[in-house]
Design goal:
By secondary structure, this protein is mainly beta. About 5% of the residues lie in helices and about 30% in strands. It has one helix and 14 strands; from the N terminus they run αββββββββββββββ. It has one helix at about 1-15, and strands spanning about 20-25, 30, 40, 60-65, 70, 75-85, 90-95, 115-120, 125, 130, 135-140, 145, 150-160, 175-185. Strands 1, 2, 6, 11 and 12 form a five-stranded antiparallel beta sheet that branches. It has a five-stranded mixed beta sheet with strand order 5-14-13-7-8, with no helix packed on it. Strands 3-4 form a two-stranded antiparallel sheet. The longest helix is centred in the first third of the chain and has 14 residues, at about 1-15.
Length: about 230
């Protein structure tokens, strides 16, 4: 009986994990899983990253994608999840502009090049029940590519940080993906602040090492990373 119970626990844990293999742009998804989104190392295992300083925190990719998706500036985007996103925690979107002379199809995204364009925080009702945007859904929250984002090729990065075990060091779990995109119809904005991944996060950041039971209207959750650039 204990053996069967252990198997059930393992099966439940696997079902609770997820990947984000497909970007949706203005309601239209990639043609197939991992079409322009780089296949992640956890494509089969669905395991998250538990170290905020790991090299995998950038894109967690095992191989580059074969295509580059065109994304108009101002577009609404989100990702499809392979499983229900049932763990509590924020969803954050980042962009990194590909340097001149390089291509999104093989650029590694190194250096102080990443800027955040979207994040989420929970709502807490009168009964102190916490709800996160898109929790228990099969898609992540919508984000908008700022209209003033300059044209060019980028890596688009999404992460959902699962905080159900985040009250201990390296307890938070990072689920993420990077998509190779080309932004068109943009503007002349100056995105920032720019950060490196890894480098932007530390194990003890208050949005990573956190007791969810201590979050309240008086002591709100603070997402990790730089401020959001909205254009």
């Amino acid at each position: 009986m204990k053996f069967i119970q252990s198997l059930l626990v393992i099966a439940t844990a696997v079902q609770a994990h997820y990947t984000f293999p497909r970007l949706v742009i203005n309601g239209k998804s990639e043609e197939a899983d991992w079409w322009a989104t780089r296949r992640t190392k956890n494509a089969d295992s669905k395991q998250g990253i538990e170290s905020a300083t790991s090299a995998d925190i950038r894109c967690y990719s095992s191989q580059n994608a074969a295509n580059i998706a065109t994304v108009p500036a101002g577009a609404t985007i989100h990702y499809i999840s392979t499983q229900q996103v049932n763990h509590p925690g924020p969803t954050q979107y980042y962009l990194a502009k590909v340097p001149e002379g390089k291509s999104a199809s093989n650029w590694d995204g190194s250096g102080n090049v990443w800027f955040k364009i979207h994040t989420t925080t929970p709502t807490i009702d009168s009964n102190k029940q916490m709800t996160w945007p898109a929790q228990n859904e099969y898609v992540l929250t919508n984000a908008t590519i700022p209209a003033s984002t300059p044209d060019g090729e980028y890596l688009l990065r999404v992460e959902q940080i699962a905080l159900h075990m985040a009250n201990r060091p390296n307890g938070a779990q990072f689920y993420l993906a990077c998509t190779q995109i080309k932004i068109t119809g943009g503007g002349s904005g100056t995105p920032g602040p720019l950060v490196a991944l890894p480098g932007a996060y530390s194990t003890n950041d208050p949005g990573i090492l956190v007791n969810l039971g201590a979050i309240s209207a008086e002591s709100p959750y603070v997402p990790p990373g730089p401020a959001v650039w909205s254009g």
